[in-house]
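S., here's the first fold you wanted:
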Amino acid sequence: MSTCTHESMTNHHASGVVATVVETVHTWRERAHQRGELAHWSERDIHDAGLSVGDVMAEASKPFWRA
């Protein structure tokens, strides 16, 4: 027969889940910030980066949760 203790009932995966959520939110915030900056680039900035205006507009208009 096994004995259930408080420690044996603890969810040891919770800290991993929290870390994953924190990392995901950080990624989303960074992505939103970068896309906001990208939306304000001039045509010269876009050209200097070797990108097309269409590519920049498509990336800048993506929602933060989409990679």
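And the second, which I think is the more interesting of the pair:
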Amino acid sequence: MSNAKNVKKDESLNKSIIESVSEYCLEHYDYSQILNSPTFVDVRPFIWNGWGASIRYTYLLCLKYFSSSKDLAMHYDGSVRWSINKADKNSVSVNIVNDSAELIYDLLAESYMWHRQEVPISKELLTMLLKELKSRGICKTYFAFHNDHPISFGVFLFYNNTAYYWLGGSRRETSSLEGPSAVLGHALADALTDNISFIDFVGANTPSIAKFKSAFNPVIYPYYLVEHVSLRAHIAKEIYSSLRRYPKTRSREGEIPS
């Protein structure tokens, strides 16, 4: 008996499921966006139903090949080992602190401010999500401290023997202390000890962030984002964009708008 998959049957099932999801979204929402797992590659039924699709990237690191934290550390680029050693010499310590939603948000907001971007989540929603994830026992937050002051953090989610580097941030003025490398290095060593098989770095789409994550020598994987915008939402977006371009106050005749 052949072990080959029935491609036609699999694609038919995939198409049926996606069409159901698409119909529900189009009926209930003016705007829908779905980020798919790197293991889910066939998003064609979304496209056939009028959705737009674009490619994104993430990094995955398989921990099953490493026998110890020392072995894992030797896998990293030399710049990472240098950063972790520097953090240690600067007396940077890393601990798990889970009841810290407000501090997490503040550090996250500061990190987005570096890149001149707005935080894509409210403090209230983040607090609610962290509380729920903690209650399910699938969330760990690592903080790097220097002189008892938090300087960097990383939030990791756990599902199906994979750790996801969900959120991270740090204070800009303490960047020379190498807190982010200390946090990630500590978290990866813990994951190895806990027999976690994979680390998903959750995104490699911003050049500066990709540069930081790639130094841990993971493997890059593509994944797909699909989205649908209704005509009403598209018009509203265009109006909003036009208003943002319009001066906040009209200048008097002969004056130059500020």
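Why I say that: The beta strands are 31-35, 52-62, 93-96, 139-146, 149-159, 162-170, 198-200, 219-229. The longest strand covers residues 52-62.

Talk tomorrow,
H.
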